[in-house]
Amino acid sequence: MTKTEHESNSPVCAIVGAGPGNGAAFARRFAAAGYRVALLARNLARLSELAATLPGSRAYACDVTDGASIRAAFEAIARDLGPVEVLVYNAGKMVWGDPLALAEADFEAAWRINAHGAFLTARAVLPAMLAAGRGTVLFVGATASRRGRPGTTAFAAAKAAQRSLAESLARAYGPQGIHVSLLIIDGVVDEPVNRPAFPGRPDEFFAKPDDIAGTAVFLARQPRSAWTFELDVRPFGEPW
Hints:
Layout: H1 3-6, E1 12-16, H2 22-32, E2 36-41, H3 44-51, E3 58-61, H4 67-80, E4 84-89, H5 104-132, E5 135-142, H6 153-173, E6 178-185, H7 209-220, E7 230-233
Helix pairs in contact: 2-7, 4-5, 5-6
């Protein structure tokens, strides 16, 4: 990283959970909008391939279940790119199952990734945002945060915790210039892992990652007088 790159006026966006699908789409959209993007996930090799296609971006290994890993990753981002102005927390774990058959470890893992990791990651970027008097923290949520259905015991509980965390942070830090927002995805995202589970469904059945990412950029650029806390995105055919 050269001094010129480090001192660039381009803001820094950190994408936590920058895997294929939504994560990669967030990275491409924010890069196209003029941000230098920090890509975070456990698979550093795959991240590095994506970073190579986005000028000014870098990849960082990060395990959101490990506080030390989160701290190390964000310290490296601050050194390499500068302070994070936009955080997109896209890390998540979907756990399904009957409540009586659900493993204790699976319930905890859902909470640890969706809620606890979100808390630790936000805490890593908030001091610099508060010092600057501006910043955006965007959590990628799910409709399960509002309703618990059979089989969603672990996922719904974890996403509900994430939603309450986001609301608490929004109320605490909004007056200090920090926009905390929750992007609720209600639908099946068009990712390679999901297509085989829904054979024969028309293309419009799926939520497109690039379109979701465009909404995220919109939220990050909202004027302070009209901030959105919670925004739903869904394909037109999704029942709600």
